[in-house]
Write a structure and sequence with these properties.
single chain; 445 residues; alpha/beta; Rossmann fold; 5-stranded parallel beta sheet; two-stranded antiparallel ribbon; 23 helices; 7 strands; globular; Asparagine synthetase domain-containing protein; ASN_synthetase/amidase; Rossmann-like_a/b/a_fold; asparagine synthase (glutamine-hydrolyzing) activity
C-alpha cells in the first residue's frame, strides 16, 4: 500500500499527482506524454495552465470572445451524425452548454438530470429543458442505487473514487439507450465562475497567507486524523498531508494570488475528478466543451477580479442566452441574471432554511423530519432516516476485520457513526470515504 496516497485520501478526499493506492503503480498526469524507447521511460508535459491576465481588454470584449468561441466549441463537437445528450443540473455550467447549441439542433438533443424527482436540481433542469425545447429525461437516485453499485465503483476506479458517486455508472448505462455522446459543463464554475475564489484569496498580500487559507480545506482535519488512525499508522503518515500540500502549492507559478488559488485547485481537485469518466468509456462518450483549448485560452487572460463571484460568467451567460439566464440558479434559487446582492440574499436564505430544518430535527429528537430537497443526494438525511442505508454502513464500518484494524481506531469510527445517525453532527461524507476504503481493502488487499 502507498501510505502517502492513504494519507491524502483521508486528508483531502482525493489523490494528488500520480499517486494510487498501490505503491509501485502510478497514473499518467494530465497533459503528459509517456515515451518508452525500449530501455527507458520518460514523461513530458506538453501543456499546463498559464494565467496571463489582460487588464487592457474590456469586459464586453471578453464576453464577445467567450460567446463566439464557446458556440464554436460546441458546434465542432456536434458535427458527426450521432445522438447527443447533455447532463443537466440546476447549476450554470451545463446550462451554458445547452445555451451554446444551435437552436435548430436542440429538439434532437436529450437533456437529462438525476436525483429525487422533486429536488431543486431536477426541477431547474426540467425548466431549462422546457425553455430550450430539448428532450428531457429524469432519473431517480435512490439509496439502493448507490449501495448496489458501491463495490463496482471501487473496483472500476481501483479505489480512486468514493462510493458517494456510484450512481453515475448506472445512470449512464440508462442514457446510452438515448445518446452516443454526452456533453457536460466540466469545471466551468471554477475556471470562469470563480466559485473557488473569495475576496480574501484575491486580495491576499503574500504567499504564506494564501497557503494558510488554502490548507484549511480538509476532509479530516489533523486532530481528526490523529483520532482516526491507530497510533502506529498515524506516526507513519502524520507529516504527509502538509508535505503533499506544500509540494503541490510550490509547483504553481502564477503571480496573482487569485490565479495561484485557482491553478492550485485545477492541478489538484480538478485533475482528480476525471477518474470518474474513465469507468464510463465502455458505455458512452463524455465530452467537455468547457475544456476547449481556444475557450480556455481566453479564460486564462481574464483577470481574477472579473472571475470573482461569477461576475463575468453571468455576463457571458446572459449574452449566450437571456432566456436561460432568467431561470433560477440552484445555489441561490434566484435568476442567474439577478444582481449579486440578490444572489447573496438567496444563498443566505437557503442556508438558513436548511439550518432551521436541522435544528427542528434535533429539537424534536428525530420525530420531525423536513426533507432537504436541494440536491441530487442527501447522505446526511439517509444516515438518519433510511434503515437499509444505516444497516449497509453499519455492517461495513463497525465490523472490524484484519485488513482494516492496522489502519483505524474502531472506537472513533463508531463515534462518527453514532454522531451521524443521531443527528448530532454531519459526518456523512467522512463515513462514505471510510466505507470506500474498507471496500477497497476487501477487494484488492
Amino acid at each position: 500500500m502507498n501510505n502517502e496516497a492513504v494519507a491524502e485520501f483521508f486528508a483531502f478526499g482525493e489523490f494528488w499527482g500520480d499517486k494510487t493506492f498501490f505503491k509501485r503503480i502510478k497514473v499518467l498526469t494530465p497533459a503528459s506524454i509517456l515515451t518508452y524507447d525500449g530501455e527507458d521511460l520518460s514523461i513530458e508535459k506538453y501543456w499546463e495552465f498559464k494565467y496571463e491576465p489582460d487588464y487592457n481588454k474590456s469586459e464586453d470584449e471578453f464576453v464577445d470572445e467567450l460567446v463566439k468561441t464557446f458556440k464554436k466549441a460546441v458546434e465542432l463537437r456536434m458535427e458527426d451524425k450521432l445522438r447527443y445528450g447533455v447532463s443537466l443540473s440546476g447549476g450554470l455550467d451545463s446550462r451554458g452548454v445547452v445555451a451554446a447549441i444551435n437552436e435548430n439542433k436542440r429538439k434532437d438533443v436529450l437533456t437529462f438530470s438525476f436525483g429525487p424527482l422533486d429536488c431543486d436540481e431536477v426541477k431547474i433542469a426540467k425548466n431549462v429543458s422546457d425553455v430550450a425545447e430539448t428532450r428531457f429525461k429524469a432519473i431517480e437516485i435512490t439509496p439502493e442505487m448507490i449501495m448496489s453499485n458501491a463495490e463496482q465503483e471501487v473496483w472500476l476506479t481501483e479505489g480512486r473514487d468514493y462510493i458517494g458517486v456510484s450512481y453515475i455508472y448506472p445512470i449512464h448505462k440508462i442514457i446510452r439507450d438515448y445518446a452516443d455522446v454526452v456533453f457536460d459543463g466540466f469545471a466551468l464554475d471554477l475556471t470562469l465562475g470563480g466559485s473557488y475564489l473569495n475576496r480574501a484569496k484575491v486580495n491576499c498580500k503574500n504567499e504564506k497567507l494564501l497557503f494558510n487559507i488554502l490548507s484549511k480545506k480538509r476532509l479530516f482535519q489533523e486532530k481528526e486524523l490523529y483520532k482516526l488512525f491507530t497510533s502506529n499508522y498515524y506516526n507513519k503518515i502524520k507529516e504527509v498531508p502538509v508535505k503533499s500540500f506544500r509540494n503541490e502549492f510550490n509547483k504553481i507559478k502564477a503571480d496573482h494570488p487569485g490565479n495561484k488559488s485557482d491553478q492550485f485547485s485545477l492541478s489538484t481537485h480538478v485533475a482528480w475528478i476525471p477518474i470518474g469518466y474513465v469507468l464510463l468509456r465502455d458505455e458512452i462518450e463524455i465530452i467537455s466543451p468547457t475544456a476547449d483549448n481556444n475557450f480556455i485560452d481566453i479564460i486564462l487572460k481574464i483577470p481574477p477580479e472579473l472571475r470573482l463571484n461569477h461576475y463575468i460568467y453571468r455576463k457571458f451567460l446572459k449574452k449566450l442566452s437571456p432566456e436561460l439566464a432568467k431561470i433560477p440558479y440552484d445555489k441561490t434559487m434566484v435568476g442567474a441574471d439577478a444582481p449579486l446582492l440578490f444572489w447573496s440574499l438567496g444563498s443566505t436564505y437557503m442556508f438558513g432554511k436548511e439550518l432551521l430544518k436541522k435544528k427542528l430535527y434535533n429539537f424534536s429528537k428525530g420525530r420531525i423530519t423536513l426533507s432537504n430537497k436541494r440536491s441530487y443526494v442527501n447522505f446526511d438525511e439517509w444516515f438518519r432516516t433510511n434503515e437499509n442505508w444505516q444497516i449497509f454502513f453499519k455492517d461495513l464500518l463497525l465490523n472490524e476485520n484484519d485488513k482494516s484494524k492496522k489502519y483505524f481506531n474502531q472506537d472513533y469510527i463508531e463515534q462518527l457513526f453514532q454522531e451521524q445517525t443521531k443527528g448530532e453532527r454531519n459526518n456523512s461524507i467522512k463515513l462514505l470515504y471510510l466505507a470506500s476504503f474498507k471496500i477497497f481493502l476487501d477487494t484488492f488487499v
